[in-house]
């Protein structure tokens, strides 16, 4: 009897365990929810590098990392004595070209103009005497009182005085008008060329004052004060936090509803799982280097990875570049 009771007790215990396991399995099947798979992305923003066109040493920084700046704000000043020296040279060349142009435009000195004028007047007086002499000799010749030889000599002298007067007048006009038109134009062109050189160097002077090309936030500064930077070397970065997006690297079998123009909801863990509506604006294969290789040779394929960019449909306060954004599948 005792053994029968022991066997019966064991049976009851086993049956109870089976029933409990069965009930737990039913309960788990009904109420268990699988943990959803998520795709992780990262927030990014437009970043612009600030650099100069001229080499120099960092003389002063006007902003620190984290400061907000407006487009056109001066953020750093470079010290470039070579550019200042070139400006002095260009200004001296402009002054010399301007002096030459003034000389060409003004013409001869006042003393030279007066001398040429007096020479012309003298030639006019001599011409008048020669004209009257010729007219008197001509009348005498017509009255057969003067020989033809004398008449010819008087006529030749009159014509010579006429040519002399015209030459003197031309000399005076040249002294009064200055250089020829072509010479004046050449001198003026030299002035314009020199002014262009000054403007060019002046533009380099302006480049020693580095300005922000956009509204944004200073994210990073590279050199220190006193360090030498070359042409085009980045000095600092500016983040445009108004132009942000999220990048997901998604295996192609997980793309699902991530199509061009599709809208979906993401979650930002850093902001307390804050929900954000995103819209897909870019979808591109990342290439064979980002392919997921099959583990089996039968019934499998190489799953490629796609880069998906999505932009927030509304501004998200507190979202910073580098923050994770999750999407549930």
Automatic annotation (TrEMBL):
Pfam families: BSH_RND (PF25917), HH_MFP_RND (PF25876). The chain crosses the membrane at residues 12-32. It comes from the Bacteria. Residues 48-239 form the Multidrug resistance protein MdtA-like barrel-sandwich hybrid domain. Keywords: Coiled coil, Membrane, Transmembrane, Transmembrane helix. This is Efflux RND transporter periplasmic adaptor subunit. Residues 151-182 form a coiled coil. InterPro entries: MdtA-like_BSH, MdtA-like_HH. Residues 120-176 form the Multidrug resistance protein MdtA-like alpha-helical hairpin domain. SUPFAM superfamilies: HlyD-like secretion proteins (SSF111369). The keyword Transport does not apply.
């Amino acid at each position: 009897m005792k053994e029968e009771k022991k066997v019966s007790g064991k049976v009851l215990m086993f049956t109870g365990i089976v029933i409990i396991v069965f009930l737990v399995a039913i309960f788990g099947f009904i109420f268990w929810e699988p943990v959803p798979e998520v795709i992780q992305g990262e927030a990014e923003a437009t970043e612009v590098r600030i650099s100069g066109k001229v080499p120099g040493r960092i003389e002063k920084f006007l902003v620190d990392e984290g400061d907000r700046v407006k487009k056109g704000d001066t953020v750093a000043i470079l010290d470039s004595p070579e550019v200042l020296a070139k400006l002095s040279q260009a200004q001296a060349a402009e002054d010399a070209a301007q002096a030459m142009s003034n000389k060409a435009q003004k013409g001869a000195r006042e003393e030279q103009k007066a001398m040429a004028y007096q020479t012309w007047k003298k030639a006019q007086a001599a011409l008048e005497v020669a004209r009257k002499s010729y007219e008197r000799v001509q009348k005498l010749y017509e009255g057969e009182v003067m020989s033809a030889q004398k008449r010819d000599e008087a006529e030749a002298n009159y014509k010579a005085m006429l040519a002399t007067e015209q030459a003197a007048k031309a000399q005076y006009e040249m002294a009064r008008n200055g250089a020829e038109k072509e010479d004046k134009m050449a001198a003026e062109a030299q002035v314009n060329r020199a002014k262009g050189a000054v403007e060019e160097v002046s533009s380099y002077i302006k480049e020693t004052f580095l300005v922000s090309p956009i509204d944004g936030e200073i994210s990073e500064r590279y050199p220190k004060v006193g360090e030498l930077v070359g042409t085009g070397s980045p000095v600092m970065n500016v983040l445009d936090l108004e132009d942000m997006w999220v990048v997901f690297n998604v295996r192609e079998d997980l793309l699902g509803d991530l199509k061009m123009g599709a809208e979906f909801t993401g979650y930002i863990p850093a902001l307390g799982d804050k929900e954000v509506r995103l819209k897909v604006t870019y979808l591109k294969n990342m290439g064979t280097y980002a392919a997921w290789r099959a583990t089996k040779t039968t019934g499998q394929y190489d799953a490629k990875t796609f880069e998906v960019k999505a932009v927030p449909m509304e501004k998200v306060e507190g979202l910073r570049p580098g923050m994770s954004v999750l999407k549930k599948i």
